Structure formats: C-alpha cells, structure tokens
Amino acid sequence: MSRTHPASLGTAVAQAVASEVLASAAARGLAVSVAVVDERGFDLVVLRGTGASWFTPDVARTKARTAAAFARSSESLGGMRGQYPDLFELIADTLPFAPTSLPGGLPVEIDGHLLGAIGVSGAPPDEDVALGREALTTMLDHTP
C-alpha cells in the first residue's frame, strides 16, 4: 500500500523535525544547529541550538541544500568529489551555493518523492547523521 504524501514538507512539519533534532541533541549533551529545506533547497526552518557555534546554522543549511539538490546524502558525494573532482566543480558552478560532502545532510523522501532535506551541524559527523536520521524516522512514523 502506498502512503499519501504531501507535495512538500511545509513549515509545521519542518518545525517539528527541527525541534526533534534539537531535543535529541540536548538530551545527549550536544549543541547543534538544524536546517530543513524544501525540495528546491529553500529554507523552511533554520534553528541554532543553545550553545551551538555561530557558524553551524550556515553549515547545516549547506548540508541540507546539498542533499536536496542531489537527492542523496551530502556524505555520499565524497566519492564523486574524490573520483571526479572536475565534475564536482562543474556541478558546483551551476548551483547557487557551494555544495558539501560533509556528513549530516539527508534527503526527505516518501515513496520515492523528494520533499526536501535536513541538515545537522555542530556535533561529530556520525552524531550529525544519527540526529538527522532519528528525526526523519520519527517524522515518517507519524506520516499518514
């Protein structure tokens, strides 16, 4: 059975996902920022958690925008960047932002439809990814 899915994430869902990330991070003693973008990479919500470094909101945004632009995790682009640096640079030149292969950017997909992406920054890379995945799992569990 196929789920019904929204055309986009919307602000309420984006806020709930971002809040889930910040709450989970705080429970682990981590200070992070989180960005949730729509399927085109435009901001829905960007939050800087208490104690997170000043630059982390922009890093989270870049991770999210990268995941939305490529419809895959930001981390997965490391292979392309390493194996085909010229291609990565050419693609980067066509985007309105500099993409990253830093871990922590995850696409939000339901039934193969890209709805947006989430980016987390401020914790060690594996924690950024884990926080994002947990929030997405929680969101998907509550999607009709």
What is the helix content?
40-55%
Average per-residue pLDDT, rounded, comes to: 92
* Biggest beta-sheet profile: 4 strands, antiparallel
Question: How many helix segments?
Answer: 5
CATH superfamily: Haem-degrading domain
What is the string of SSEs from the N terminus onward?
Answer: HEEHHHEEH
What is the strand tally? 4
CATH level 1 class label: Alpha Beta
Distance, first to last CA:
11 Å
Residue stretches low in confidence (pLDDT < 50, at least 5 long) are none
Instruction: Evaluate the radius of gyration.
Output: 14 Å
Beta-strand content estimate: 15-25%
Structural shape: globular
User: What's the CATH architecture?
Assistant: 2-Layer Sandwich
* CATH overall fold name: Beta-Lactamase
Structural class: alpha+beta
User: How many domains comprise the coordinates?
Assistant: 1
Q: Biggest sheet: strands side by side, in what order?
A: 2-1-4-3
Q: Describe it for me?
A:
The chain has 144 residues and is an alpha+beta fold. The protein has a single domain (10-141), classed as Beta-Lactamase. 47% of the residues lie in helices and 19% in strands. The chain contains five helices and four strands, in the order αββαααββα. The protein has helices spanning 10-27, 56-70, 77-83, 85-94, 125-141; strands at residues 33-38, 43-48, 105-110, 113-121. The protein has a four-stranded antiparallel beta sheet with strand order 2-1-4-3. Strand 3 and strand 4 form a beta hairpin. Helix 1 (10-27) crosses helix 5. It is globular and about 40 Å long. 44% of the residues are buried.
